[in-house]
Amino acid sequence: MVGLGILIFFVAVYGFAFFYPASATQLQTYQASQGLPPSNTSIFPEICTYTVGSPAPLPSGCYPTPIGFPSVIGPTTAFSPLGLGPLPMGSLTINPGNIQFYDIFDGLIKGTDWSLTIAFGVVASGAMIGVVVGMVSGYFGGVVDESIMRLTDIFLSIPGLLLVIIVLAVFAPEITSIDTRVALIIGAFVVIWWPTYARVVRGQVLVVREQRFVEAAKAAGAHSGRIIRKHIMPNSIYPVFVQMSLDVGSVPLLIAAIVFIGFQIFPNQNFPEWGTIAAYSVSFNVVQSFITACQTASTCTIPWWQFLFPGLALFMFAISVNFFADGLRDALDPRLRR
Amino acid sequence: MSAAAPRVTTSLPASESPLPAPSLEGTAAQAGATLPKRGDVILDVRDLCTYFYTYDGVVRALDGVSFKVRRGETVGMAGETGCGKSVTMFSALRLIPDPPGRTVSGKVLFQGANLLWGIESEAKMKPIGTTGRVKVTRKFRRIKAANERMMAVRGHGISMIFQEPTSAMNPLFPIYDQIGETLLLHRGTQLLEGLLSADPDGPAVRPALERLAEAVERRAEAGEIRSLAKAAAVAIRCPSAETQLYYRARDARQNPTGVLRQLTRSIQRFRLSGPQRAYLRYQLGLIRSQDRLKQIYMTEMRLGKLDRAAKINLRSRIRLQRWSHFYFGLWGIRGRVAKPLKDELFWQTVRLLEGVQIANPVQVARGYPFELSGGMLQRVMIAMALSSEPLLLMADEPTTALDVTIQAQILDLMRDLKQRVGMGILLVTHDLAVIAEVADRVCIMYAGQIVENAPVKDLFAHPLHPYTQGLLASIPRMDQPDKHLDSIPGSVPNLISPPSGCRFHPRCAYAMEICKKSRPPMTEEGNGHQVACFLYHGAPVTE
Hints:
- The complex is a heterodimer.
- Chain A is mainly α.
- Chain A has a domain at about 110-250: MetI-like fold, CATH 1.10.3720.
- Chain A contains 13 helices and two strands.
- Chain A has helices at about 1-15, 25-35, 70-75, 105-140, 140-155, 160-170, 180-210, 210-220, 225-235, 240-260, 275-280, 285-295, 305-330, and strands at about 45-50, 60-65.
- By secondary structure, chain B is an alpha/beta fold.
- Chain B has a domain at about 200-270.
- Helices cover about 45% and strands about 15% of the residues of chain B.
- Chain B has helices at about 25-30, 85-90, 140-150, 175-195, 205-215, 220-235, 240-250, 260-265, 275-305, 310-330, 335, 340-355, 360-365, 375-385, 405-420, 430-440, 455-460, 465-475, 515, and strands at about 40-55, 55-70, 75-80, 100-110, 115, 125, 135, 160, 390-395, 425-430, 440-445, 450-455, 525, 530, 540.
- In chain B, helix 14 runs parallel beside helix 15.
- Chain B starts with about 25 loop residues before the first helix and ends with a strand.
- In chain B, about 45% of the residues are buried.
- The interface of A and B includes residues 213, 219, 334 and 335 of A.
């Protein structure tokens, strides 16, 4: 199961590379319609780096790079020309106006970085907070339990999407560093994410602490710290794995939703993050500009790669994490080990 | 009964049983008391009252329960469901969940130390108007302190066996892990000292191993291998080497090549490296301070006086040691340096499992609780309860979940161990046959009170209390197949509003006027036979 999860993950990111380029004619038509120079279509596409904000590891310029390694030297932020989203595979080139842009493959590879950072960051910190809070609340009960659970209810009652948007609207304009900005996004998501885990863990602890072996441990002279660590936590942690595996896939989806309704939570519209790429390509402005382009140009192509491949990557990613968590659970639980 | 139960092959004569013919010096010294002799009272419960405060009202689950358990004596407790048998046991160890339960008065003296000391003032309840409801105060700091004091007793002096062995063990950890934990907690000092003083390079070790290897090569009997392994363990000066060498040698008997080398390698674990030795010493320090703290707690409970000065440094030291243990774990060095201790705990577990007559203790020790049958697990539970060499064993319906042959084996085992170890046993069950089989003394409970307390033979020969007579009459008997099976009319009363006077009077055939008015006192009817009933007119029992 774990292996299957990892396999699907790599298929999600790299497997579609073969399908990325539209046909050569389509690509050329697209480039001509957008006023772009024809691209380098060799198997060593040139990767261009630029210095935006922080210094890049290599001087600006273009380097031939084998497929699969573009993000190693690629820039972390990229723009597409004309504000039209990522270009089809193989259309990387230099824009003399010193603007960066990326093709869909490059965008997906870079997107792996950001999407995973945000998804795992949100889920891991949310779970960590939730597990501690839920454990304390469930084990000690009484007043502690009541107050913690009411606090959890308050957090649960906040509409998550709105909170994230407000937090970013209030704090983000002053933030220029991309890392700080992503940290803020993670933080905003964690605020709405931890109560779920707290509730899951508390429910589980309430079941486990009534079990005979906890009573037996008490009768054998164990102190409460030991009981929590050795008996209650290992027995109540598995639902958290399941919950985490479900949530990891839904974080990029939520980001996509926010981007889709038009809020710019990343520094620019074409920030290479799966959800953003997918949502941006079908958002109102972009669709309208394509309609305009189609009216003027003799032929035009709907940029289907912009939403299809990030969407597939998201889908496969969510599935792979699910398989991975399932396998991990089976491997860790001795009752299922055979 | 024991004839029906096939004895397992590795069972040994009692004299050379692997269960350490436990001298109780260790425990008694840890508990800070002089060693109680056989026949001394170890548990003295006086006038115990435990109430549960529910929305419907106060459930008077225990109302003035008094009894004694002596060393080397088995006291059985019997009665219908809901009579407070288990509550008595849990109250004595203060394991009643609070809320809703609360032991409101009485004393539980374990070796003279009052386990309920320090929370008597907690038991004060204020009635709310005339509603019959009460307000219960809970001072958490005091309850917490009292709970911490109980660590000196729980598992250490009093062990417990639970009703369903399958649910009484953590399913996520192997057996040796769980028994090893209690072993280290309660017998860590002896164990670590033994490990530190072991000498695998002593002059007598090599010849002893050679003799053992030679016996293996000529495929000697198991008994001979056992005694040679024992001799080798004596030479190594660590008793747990005996089981290890024995099982290693027994396995090698199938294919006796390079036996000596295998045996030598198996005692490699006693050659401690510097860090390992340091780790063991450090663990020893931690356990010694914990033992010292337990001693102080026992003294506090015995004298009824806090000893703050003695505890201050000790508790901060223990906290520091626990934290540093945690950091060792974080650095990832604990795994390697703790290996000898882990091995030692494993082989000590195997020794204990042998003591409860498990046929393949090595495999069982490695197994998980859900891989074992109920009878096996009950033995494991008994081994775990006995691992701390307690003075008193409390068994809460230990045979209820088991089939009859296993029941017989378990009861045999408990009787055996009682004679060998010399502890007291408090046995709760609703099966009078079990009581007749193992108990020396019986307490019959009804609706939260003890109605009759008598030596087992007396009780079965002349039951005095009408309730006891009813209980005995309702046992089906093989020798009187035509006899109509009696039952006691009615059922156990609701303990929120128990009947006035004698609680049994609504169901009693001999009920008189006085029974409705006042509670009968416990009277002595000769030969230690005590009964609480107005039909008898013996001298009232005093403490």
